[in-house]
Write a structure and sequence with these properties.
- By secondary structure, the protein is of the alpha+beta class.
- Helix content is 18%, strand content 38%.
- The chain folds into 2 domains: 78 residues, Beta Barrel (Elongation Factor Tu (Ef-tu), domain 3); 91 residues, Elongation Factor Tu (Ef-tu), domain 3.
- It has 6 helices and 12 strands.
- A 6-stranded antiparallel β-barrel has the order 1-2-5-4-3-6.
- The longest helix is centred in the last third of the chain and has 11 residues.
- The chain starts with 7 loop residues before the first strand and ends with a helix.
């Protein structure tokens, strides 16, 4: 689990492509003091497992499903990425609960400034927008943000100077593809509401002596 509070901007140091997968090398220093092989690290909001490490960065394997659902396939060497280590249970939860499992991608359709803030407008598919709620939380490239506006085609977020400065979002441009993770609470609520557990209960057999005999227990 993550919080969506970015700790460091890393640099893509190497990309080794397979037929459908990638081995990604990331150069970073601030987070490497306690990173171990097997740890989970969020890279642009995507939960990746450290497969090797040094004092100057780490490598991770990216499987085909992750390549299909995220923008990692568009990365090039020297690109900047948002980095966050996994949440520790004694940490303050400064953002919101982020799993690192990307729901899909969106496209930056507009960008503008308002006094000290930067506005980003993101166009996304219907299956993403259904979970976007005004004043709710969303993670964009792993950054926890508050939704300021949403309609049936897009949503908008506003970046304070600090967020724009310590993440890659401040340098994003119109037309860029961005990773989106919706607030997981909405997805769980929808699943529970849609599932008809009454049917499941009605199809369960009662535990009787005949049932036990039929199944070889007595």
């Amino acid at each position: 689990m993550f919080t969506g509070i970015i700790e460091e901007i890393g640099i893509v140091d190497g990309i080794k492509s397979g037929s459908m997968s990638v081995k990604l090398s990331i150069k970073c220093r601030k987070i490497m003091d306690d990173v171990k092989i097997g740890d989970s690290i969020s890279v642009n909001g995507i939960c990746l497992t450290v497969t090797s490490r040094s004092f100057e960065g780490f490598t991770a394997d990216v499987m085909p499903e992750t390549m299909r659902r995220t923008n990692l396939g568009r990365l090039k060497t020297k690109d900047k990425v948002n980095i966050e280590r996994a949440l520790r249970l004694n940490d303050r939860l400064g953002g919101h609960i982020v799993s690192g499992h990307i729901d899909g991608t969106g496209v930056i359709s507009d960008k503008g400034e308002e006094d000290n803030a930067i506005w980003l407008e993101i166009c996304a598919a219907e299956d993403i927008l259904r979970y976007i709620v005004q004043k709710g939380s969303v993670a964009l490239d792993g950054t926890s943000l508050t939704v300021a506006y949403v309609d049936d085609k897009c949503f908008r977020v506003s970046l304070i100077p600090h967020t724009a400065g310590v993440t890659t979002l401040g340098t994003r441009k119109i037309g860029d593809i961005i990773n989106i993770e919706c607030d997981m609470l909405g997805k769980y609520v929808e699943k529970l509401i849609k599932t008809d557990y009454s049917k499941e209960r009605n199809t369960k057999k009662e535990l009787t002596m005949d049932f036990l005999r039929e199944n070889g227990f007595v």
